[in-house]
Design goal:
Elements lengths: L4 E4 H14 L4 H16 L10 H10 L9 E6 L2 E5 L5 H19 L1 E9 L6 H9 L2 E7 L20 E5 L7 E5 L6 H10 L8 E2 L5 E2 L2 H6 L1 E2 L4 H16 L23 E9 L6 H16 L13 H9 L3 E4 L1 H14 L11
Parallel strand pairs: 3-4
Antiparallel strand pairs: 1-12, 2-3, 4-11, 5-6, 5-11, 6-7, 8-9, 8-10
Length: 352
């Protein structure tokens, strides 16, 4: 996107936190959520970045998201817990879940938290990175709103059901896979609609089941699972992992806040962490993972470099450490939000 504008990273975090605080979110929770969104934009994952801030603010205003929830661990049995998030911002619920997984996992070697009554938690790598930093191998997934038709179907039964896997590495970057089980994240459909661009072929079908690259028609129709019947099977199983352990709703039972910001989505999340220190040892695991990353990176023809999972996003984050590029439609939405909430407008980055 050559027309992107650059903004200071700290200004974006401050603006997002102020916007959330204006909707009643406590400062610490607002800052956490702001950092999650801005980091996604730094990594080029615009579908999970500040594009979502106006939606969060509207859902907070209308009651779809509870700004000051009372989180409660309704079950807490050894290495396993269930968290009732009280319609919290997903980031707030996930931070509580990740903190418990790290604390209990260090005692037990493994810990899992199933969350219900939550909302969108942003990019999954924001959470797997924390677990990797603590020496944990992680598995994270979530239910979402209904946007995906199973392989062979035409109705919206599934969510984009993200899957995030992370392992610590001595290379400095964890080995990370963070992906939707649809061919593209639903936020990318919204971004394409906002930008007036088309979707890649093979991402969606219209309401009649015909392939489409029009994001407006894709909204009316359905997203397609990645990998044909195999990807569809993974998506269905992740739906079960994310929602069947608690009272969370399946996607086909959910009204997405994209459709109605007053909807309490009751998303389910599942976080599982294995403390690598309890197995081969944290240093040995990190060293072996680094060797695997290096082998992948050197596997190109004629010694040409190849990206290991997570490498492109990390590079983009390093490049955007100070100045973060944003798509024009997101810039316009943030300007409108600033006016609505009487916040100081963002100023573009000025090189030193």
């Amino acid at each position: 996107m050559n027309t992107q504008q650059l903004f200071p990273q700290r200004d974006l975090v401050r603006f997002a936190a102020q916007a959330l605080a204006a909707r009643g979110v406590p400062r610490e929770d607002a800052d956490l959520t702001a950092r999650s969104l801005v980091q996604a934009d730094q990594r080029g994952i615009y579908s999970h970045g500040l594009l979502r801030l106006p939606l969060y603010c509207e859902a907070l205003r209308l009651g779809g998201i509870n700004p000051a929830p009372k989180l409660k661990f309704s079950k807490d049995q050894g290495s396993v817990a269930v968290l009732d998030a009280d319609a919290a911002l997903g980031q707030v619920a996930m931070q509580a879940a990740v903190d418990r997984v790290i604390r209990v996992g260090r005692e037990q070697g493994i810990a899992a938290v199933a969350v219900h009554n939550s909302s969108h938690y942003g990019a999954g790598a924001f959470w797997s990175d924390q677990l990797a930093e603590a020496g944990f191998l992680s598995f994270i997934t979530s239910s979402t709103g209904p946007v995906v038709a199973p392989h062979g179907g035409t109705s919206k039964v599934l969510g984009t059901n993200p899957l995030t896997l992370g392992v610590p590495s001595a290379s400095g970057w964890p080995l990370t896979a963070d992906l939707a089980t649809s061919n593209g994240a639903y936020g990318k459909v919204i971004a394409a609609k906002n930008e007036g661009t088309q979707l890649p072929e093979g991402w969606a079908v219209d309401a009649d089941g015909n392939p489409t690259t029009d994001p407006v028609e894709a909204e009316k129709g359905s997203m397609i699972p990645f990998g044909g019947h195999k990807g569809s099977a993974v998506a269905v199983l992740l739906e079960a992992f994310a929602a069947s352990l608690t009272d969370a709703t399946f996607a086909f039972e959910t009204v997405d806040i994209w459709s109605n910001p007053a909807s309490r989505m009751n998303n389910g999340h599942l976080v599982i962490g294995l403390d690598t220190a309890a197995f081969a040892g944290s240093e040995k695991t990190a060293s072996r993972v680094a060797a695997l990353q290096d082998r992948v990176r050197s596997s190109g023809p004629g010694g040409q470099p190849v990206d290991a999972p997570g490498d492109p996003e990390r590079r983009r984050q390093e490049e955007a450490a100070q100045a973060v590029p944003l798509p024009p439609s997101t810039v316009s939405q943030l300007a409108a939000l600033a006016e609505e909430l009487s916040l100081s407008p963002l100023e573009t980055h000025s090189a030193p």
